[in-house]
Amino acid sequence: MAALDRVKVLVLGDSGVGKSSLVHLLCHNQVLGNPSWTVGCSVDVRIHDYKEGTPEEKTYYIELWDVGGSVGSATSVKSTRAVFYNLLNGIILVHDLTNKKSSQNLYRWSLEALNRDVAPTGVLVTNGDYDHEQFGDNQIPLLVIGTKLDQIPETKRNEVLTRTAFLAEDFNAEEINLDCTNPRYLAAGSSNAVKLSRFFDKVIEKRYFLRDGNQVCQFS
Q: Which of 19, 34, 165, 199 is 20 to 30 A off residue 110, Cα-Cα?
């Protein structure tokens, strides 16, 4: 069997938001029993059928790079992470729906990965204002995922989801909210599964195809 083509997707967000649990769920459709802190970076692989059910269907490897979530401002910390940002094809931004700061920090994470040679400075979010120009030229597909939905009381969910909905708009990305301890949130045919598949298709198209659908030269 010929080796499958692959794409590299970063999974970014603060420590404790559930990135490792999310990656395990995405790659194995199982709940991670004993999640631990990620040191450096952990890589897992998901098999994805591009344009499933169409004549263009093709199978790819999706490499999910779970980057350790320390948000320390030390230059050494950022320099260590920068090596993981090379040749990225897509980014999944993960935040904890019960932790407002983890949502705000997604701007820092995305800026750090997309502009790895320029250390982010200053406050990116002030009183709800967002500087769109910082990401205006971004060509890397993004997906925003909110975790720990189960920990929000039903009476508070609308309020919380309304508060975080602007993230998807700011990043020009689709949004998925879920509980990583319950695989039904990504069940086949669900709206979340469709959004996820659409995101991976977009990543593959950006990596391997021109906008008119013609294949481009591939690189390692």
A: 34
- Tell whether domain 6-115+134-209 is in CATH 3.90.226.10: no
Cα separation, 135 vs 93, whole angstroms = 14
Strands 58-67, 41-50: pairing kind: antiparallel
Q: What are the Cα distances from residue 72, in Å, to 34, 51, 110, 114?
A: 25, 40, 15, 18
For 19, residues 6+ apart whose C-beta sits below 8 A from its C-beta are 11, 12, 13, 38, 66, 67, 69, 94
Q: 13's torsion region: left (phi>0), alpha (psi -120 to 50) or beta?
A: left
The span from the CA of 92 to the CA of 11, in Å, is 5
Instruction: Please say whether the beta carbons of 31 and 185 come within 8 A.
Output: no
Work out the pLDDT band at 121, boundaries 50, 70, 90: very low
Q: Which residue has the higher pLDDT, 214 or 175?
A: 175
Is residue 38 within 8 A of residue 10, CB to CB? The reply is no
- The rounded Cα 56 to chain-centroid distance in angstroms is 25
* CA–CA dist 144, 167 (Å, integer): 7
- For 32-91, the pLDDT digits (tens) are 877 776 778 899 999 999 999 999 999 999 999 999 877 554 555 666 788 899 999 999
